[in-house]
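Much of our argument rests on the idea that a fold can be written as discrete symbols. In the encoding step, the backbone of a single protein was reduced to a row of integers, each denoting a local shape. We regard such an encoding as a compact summary of how the chain folds. The record that follows shows the chain in one-letter code together with its fold in token form:
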Amino acid sequence: MKVIIFSILSLSLTLMFSDVTHAGDSYAHFDDKGQLERPMGYREWIFIGAPLTPNDMNDGKAAFPEFHNVYIDPASWAVWKKAGEFRDGTVIIKELVSVGSKSTYSGNGYFMGEYIGLEAMVKSKKRFPKSNGNWGFFRFTNDNYKGLKKSANVLPQKACMSCHTPNAEYDNVFTQHYPVLRAAKSKGEAGIGGK
């Protein structure tokens, strides 16, 4: 009887642990064609930053002139806080938001406008074994910037890695622009802004 109880307990703990660390848990879903299905509910994930490189500061030719609201899935956030690594299965979402008004009652600045796109990066040894860091990049934005696709094919590696690999601070992620990630890396509860 003790052996059966121990076996059940071991299996339960293994399944619980694999839920947190294994690729393809409940955050990255792929269809039978290998397309990433657009993640749902990502605005309730952990918000890590909102970089902006406006045209005004780049001679009218910024590569990405919109705000990027960036989120990481909760299971990967838990591993990042503990181990300081992006687990196999990490999903990072980049939501594109236009620059709206440039002035308001509080003064001049850059203020968010409308949602105009959605992109994702997924870390998976199984799906992207030859990619640097095992990352795959996806774009759900329609070509006319109106509406989003329900699923997306992985983009060619050079489309994203040509910038990510030489410029991203850690594991092809621009952690240098995300103070939320920097503050929490391997610090557990001490890095989340207090409790």
Remarks:
- The chain is about 25% helix and 25% strand.
- The first strand starts at residue 36 and ends at 37.
